[in-house]
User: Which sequence fits this backbone?
C-alpha cells in the first residue's frame, strides 16, 4: 500500500506540519490539498491538545497520512524535528532522497504549485538547488487597533500581492540536517541547517504562491506565545527586562508553560500585578520585540473588552511614537522584505540601520545595494532576466539601459509585477520612444 502511494521519480516528497486541536480545520484543509500530490503527509499534533477520534479519522482516510501525537514542551524547533526525523526514516525505508514541503495550518499552497510540485522540484534538484522560496499572498485581518508599524510587522505588504518569500520547500541532505532555535532562548523562531552541506536557495517564479490566512486575534495570540516562551523578537530572552518581569510574575502565580499562561489569559480577571504589566506593555518600544509585547497586551484586552478602562483604551488607540532609530530600523526591515523577500538577519539589520543613521548611505541607495548582492542575483535568477531587459532596450529604444531603468525592470519582472513579455510594449509606450520614433 505504501509503495502505491510513492510517486514516480528519484525522490520522495513529504509534507510536514505541527498542529494542535484548535487548528484542526486548517490542518484538514492542508491535508486535503496536499495529500494527492505528495508521497506522505506527516502531521505532528500536540499530545496535550490532541484531535478528537472523529477528527483523526478524517485525516487518516488518506492512506499516505501519518499522524503522530507527541508532547509539546514549549520548543518549536524540537517539535518540528519530529516530522523531519520521520521523513528521514521514510527516505531510508524507500532508499530515496527526500524533499520536504512544510507549512503551518494557516498556510496553503496554490493549486498551480501543488499540481506541478514534482516536476518543479525535479527541475531545481537537477540544478543543485536544495531550498525553495515561495511567494506569499497575504490574507491578514487588519484591526483598527493596529498602527502602521503593527501592520508592517504582520504583513510584509498589506496588499494581497506580497513580495515576501518563505522557504517552505527543502531537500533533506543527510541525517545531520535539523531545526535549530535562534537567539538567546532558541525555543520559538528557528532555522534549519547542516554542518556539512550548505544551502543553495532559489525563489520560485512569482506565479507559484502560498496564501497565509491569519485572523487578527491569532496574530496577537502568537505574539503572546513568542513573548512568554522566548522573550519576543528573535528569542531575545533575558536581554529584554520586560520578559524577566513577566516570568517572575508567572512564577509567583505557578504558571510554568505557555499552555497554562494562555489558559490564564483566556480566563480573564487576571492577577493585579499581571494586569498592570499588560497595561505597561502597551507603551513598549516600537521595536520588533516591543511590538510583540504590545500585541500580547492587545490579545488580552480583545478577549476581555469589559476590563478596558478609559486609560487603557487611550493607550490602545495611541501607541507610542517610533523613535528615529526605530523608524529607520523598520525601513531596513521593509527593504529586506521587498528586495530579498525575507526578514533581515540581525547583523544586516544593525549594519544598515546604523549606516543610514550616520548618513553613510541614503534610503534611496539601500534598495540598489541589496539588489547588487549575490543573494538577490541567485535567488531570483537575475542574470537571465537582466540579459532580457538589455535585449529589449537594444531592440526597442536602440540603446543600453541606464542603471536605474535596468534595476527597476529586472525587479518588476522577477517579483511578478510585470510579465517578461510585456516589457517591449511598455518601452514602446514611453515618452522616449515617441520622441525618437513617433507613433510608428
Assistant:
Amino acid at each position: 500500500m505504501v509503495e502505491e502511494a510513492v510517486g514516480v521519480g528519484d525522490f520522495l516528497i513529504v509534507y510536514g506540519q505541527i498542529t494542535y486541536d484548535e487548528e484542526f480545520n486548517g490542518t484538514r484543509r492542508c491535508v486535503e490539498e496536499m495529500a494527492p500530490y505528495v508521497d506522505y503527509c506527516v502531521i505532528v499534533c500536540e499530545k496535550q491538545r490532541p484531535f478528537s477520534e472523529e477528527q483523526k479519522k478524517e485525516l487518516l482516510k488518506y492512506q499516505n497520512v501519518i499522524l503522530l501525537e507527541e508532547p509539546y514542551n514549549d520548543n518549536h524547533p524540537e517539535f518540528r524535528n519530529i516530522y523531519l526525523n520521520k521523513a528521514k526514516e521514510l527516505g531510508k525505508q524507500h532508499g530515496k532522497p527526500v524533499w520536504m514541503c512544510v507549512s503551518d495550518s494557516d498556510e496553503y499552497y496554490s493549486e498551480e504549485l501543488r499540481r506541478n510540485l514534482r516536476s518543479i522540484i525535479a527541475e531545481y534538484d537537477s540544478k543543485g538547488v536544495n531550498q525553495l522560496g515561495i511567494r506569499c499572498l497575504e490574507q491578514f485581518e487588519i484591526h483598527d487597533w493596529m498602527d502602521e508599524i503593527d501592520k508592517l510587522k504582520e504583513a510584509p505588504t498589506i496588499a494581497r500581492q506580497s513580495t515576501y518569500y518563505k522557504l517552505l520547500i527543502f531537500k533533506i541532505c543527510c541525517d545531520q540536517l535539523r531545526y535549530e532555535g535562534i537567539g538567546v532562548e532558541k525555543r520559538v523562531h528557528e532555522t534549519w541547517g547542516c554542518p556539512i552541506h550548505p544551502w543553495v536557495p532559489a525563489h520560485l517564479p512569482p506565479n507559484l504562491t502560498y496564501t497565509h490566512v491569519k485572523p487578527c486575534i491569532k496574530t496577537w495570540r502568537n505574539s503572546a506565545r513568542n513573548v512568554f516562551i522566548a522573550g519576543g523578537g528573535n528569542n531575545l530572552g533575558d536581554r529584554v527586562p520586560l520578559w524577566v518581569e513577566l516570568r517572575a510574575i508567572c512564577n509567583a502565580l505557578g504558571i510554568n508553560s505557555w499552555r497554562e499562561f494562555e489558559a490564564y489569559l483566556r480566563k480573564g480577571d487576571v492577577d493585579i500585578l499581571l494586569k498592570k504589566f499588560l497595561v505597561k506593555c502597551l507603551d513598549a518600544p516600537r521595536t520588533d520585540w516591543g511590538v510583540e509585547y504590545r500585541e500580547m497586551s492587545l490579545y488580552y484586552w480583545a478577549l476581555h473588552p469589559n476590563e478596558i478602562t478609559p486609560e487603557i483604551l487611550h493607550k490602545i488607540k495611541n501607541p507610542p511614537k517610533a523613535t528615529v532609530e526605530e523608524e529607520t530600523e523598520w525601513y531596513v526591515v521593509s527593504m529586506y522584505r521587498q528586495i530579498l523577500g525575507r526578514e533581515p538577519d540581525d547583523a544586516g539589520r544593525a549594519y544598515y540601520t546604523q549606516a543610514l543613521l550616520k548618513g553613510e548611505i541614503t534610503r534611496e541607495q539601500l534598495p540598489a545595494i541589496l539588489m547588487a548582492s549575490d543573494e538577490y542575483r541567485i535567488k531570483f535568477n537575475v542574470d537571465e532576466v537582466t540579459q532580457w531587459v538589455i535585449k529589449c532596450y537594444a531592440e526597442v529604444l536602440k540603446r543600453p539601459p541606464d542603471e536605474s531603468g535596468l534595476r527597476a525592470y529586472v525587479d518588476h519582472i522577477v517579483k511578478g509585477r510585470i510579465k517578461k513579455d510585456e516589457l517591449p510594449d511598455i518601452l514602446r509606450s514611453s515618452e522616449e520612444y515617441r520622441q525618437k520614433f513617433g507613433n510608428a
Observations:
- Residues 76-94 form the longest helix (19 residues).
- Residues 381-437 form one domain.
- The chain has a mean pLDDT of 92.
